[in-house]
Amino acid sequence: MSNINYNKNVLEHFENPRNMGEMETPDSEAMVGNPQCGDVMRIMLRIKENKIDDIKFQTMGCAAAIATSSMLTEIAKGKTLEEAKKIRNVDVVKALGELPPIKVHCSNLAADALRKAIGNWEKNNS
Q: Is 106 a catalytic residue?
């Protein structure tokens, strides 16, 4: 890891990520990436009764990218699709405590991936 200082919450989500892995037969998914830093996130959703029943992620990237993906899944799980679409990068950063300014773009990817996955589901189920 680089010499960037992360708080304990970010390190906890990086070292013990929640909801990480492959989901068999997701109802929807999305992949987003940042060509500048090389981070790539895949979000998979299982949706029941218009709520996020289950959520998984796979992220290739830095500690902040993995931590924000993990935190996003915790925030989004159980929310209605309308509630989940309102989750923004600042919500993810706030839930983690903070991120070094140079790493805030990682939280943008997490929130973007979630909204894209929900959008894909809505497109296919309308």
A: yes
